Amino acid sequence: MIIRSAGRVLCALLVCLAALAMGCGTQRDSGAARDGGAASTPAWARGMPTVTVDRLPAEARRTLRLIDEGGPFPYPKDGTVFGNFEGRLPREPRGYYREYTVRTPGERGRGARRLVTGREHETYYTDDHYASFKAVLR
């Protein structure tokens, strides 16, 4: 009777350990998806949602190529100072950030999507006109 009871306890313990191990793996994976994983996330992007270039909309990838090539840009405001008035990005001196329009299919004007770059090559993406940002991991 005692052996049978000890076997049940051992079995229950092993099931709990297996569930715990699987749960820990899932937690770590979801964290890595949210911010790219602490080891691979640059310091400027830590603590905020991230996105890799390949997960950006095609129009954002095109805008990134234009930024890397120095233009020409399709919108007159592209490359102008982004003031960060909403305070969603790290506080930096005026002129630190530049903004670029990401074309939104179906929009007649500039739409809500932007890429914002920093002097130290940081890149941020917003699809809701600065209400939120994701750090772009390049």
Automatic annotation (TrEMBL):
Q: What is this protein called?
A: Ribonuclease N
Species of provenance: Streptomyces spectabilis
Keywords for this protein: Hydrolase, Lyase, Nuclease, Signal
- Please give one Pfam family short name: Ribonuclease
Q: Which GO terms describe its molecular function?
A: hydrolase activity; ribonuclease T1 activity; RNA binding
Instruction: State the superkingdom.
Output: Bacteria
Q: Which Enzyme Commission number(s) are listed?
A: 4.6.1.24
Its lineage opens with:
Bacteria, Bacillati, Actinomycetota, Actinomycetes, Kitasatosporales
List the InterPro entries: N1-like (IPR000026), Ribonuclease/ribotoxin (IPR016191)
Q: Which residues form the signal peptide?
A: 1-21
Keyword Transit peptide appears in the UniProt entry: no
